[in-house]
Amino acid sequence: MPETDRALRPLLRDGAVLGEGPDAAVPVHYGAPLREQRHLLDGTAVVDLGQFELLEVRGADARSWMTTVTTQVLAATPVGSSASLAVLSPQGRVEHMASAVVLDEEALLLILDAGARAGMRRYLEMMRFAARVELIDRDDLRVLGALSPAAEVLPQLGLPAPVAVWSEPWPQVAEGGVAYGPDPEDPVGAVLTVCDTASLEALPWRPEHLAGMSSWEALRIADHRARSVREVDERSIPHELDLLRTSVHTTKGCYRGQETVAKVLNLGQPPRRLVMLHLDGSQDIPVAAGGEVRLGGSEGKVVGAVTSAALHVDLGPIALAVVRRAVPLDAALSVQVPVGEAGGESTAVWIDAAQEPIVLPRDHGARPATPKL
Questions:
Q1: Among the CATH numbers 3.30.750.24, 2.40.30.110, 2.60.120.260, 1.10.10.10, which is that of 272-364?
Q2: How many CB atoms sit inside 10 A of residue 136's CB?
Q3: pTM for this one?
Q4: Exposure pattern of 87-126 as b/e (b: 16+ CB <10 Å)?
Q5: Is it the case that residue 9 has pLDDT exceeding 50?
């Protein structure tokens, strides 16, 4: 599990059930997950993303320095603007991911997944050298997720003025980006609102104001968005997860791992690809991350693994999985679901799964950003 030593009080109300793994600090739902998801889709509820961590990069060189040490262009970007970024290894593997907001002329706020801040901070400290920057852990702040800024979703609640609001026009390809597959159907996007923690905890939250993490994950999966603590492993390159769409600026140069990015983009193919799975819900058995993905049934060849799964209010059971590039786009797949042990051996059932492509094999063509007119 990612490392963290933060003390966190979740935004609780009656019926709250805490999550597991990286989301153990916040409610997975409050007793009615599908109703909560509908409220989130309708723009009348927010999600407690208090497990997300915040790191401020402040100083005269903050934006120019972050441009040189990450995959994104942040120099000269307007105050209040948002971006997605990554840090790659020298071999082009994904090491860190973050959402960034320009706070003022000399500061950026990085929003990181649960437990991811310590690793990002170590990397940035290693790369600081003579740059005029300081790194500040912002545990006084908390993130709310919704489809619009939180103050627009809950105007009656009296939310404090936000410190930052992050959003991007997903799935639009960002400047310098390249899409490795089709846009998701009916995307809803995501908005992260960052506010003072103490002020949020003091508000009179009502049941209808909050949706659980299961709702957020269902919408994220349907939007084809990769999450660092779910989809990224030690082998991940950004092409496999469609990160070139918004998180990697392919023409700026001067960042660690750029040779791999350029080589795979121009000459090769990513060895794996992210896919969304529509799961057979007739057996009423929830799928979990880590389940094997096979061609055909239980006797088929293992071709990947589930990375995220959720129950979507409209689409039913869905999942993200990383599979081998060579898996045919129209191939029928099956997902392993452990159900217990018998005779000292673990037992499992197999759920049929249909693919919805996210990342396509390279011979289908990568799509660059549409030039602005």
A1: 2.40.30.110
A2: 14
A3: 0.94
A4: bbeeebbbbbbbbbbbbeeebbbbbbbbbbbbbbbebbee
A5: yes
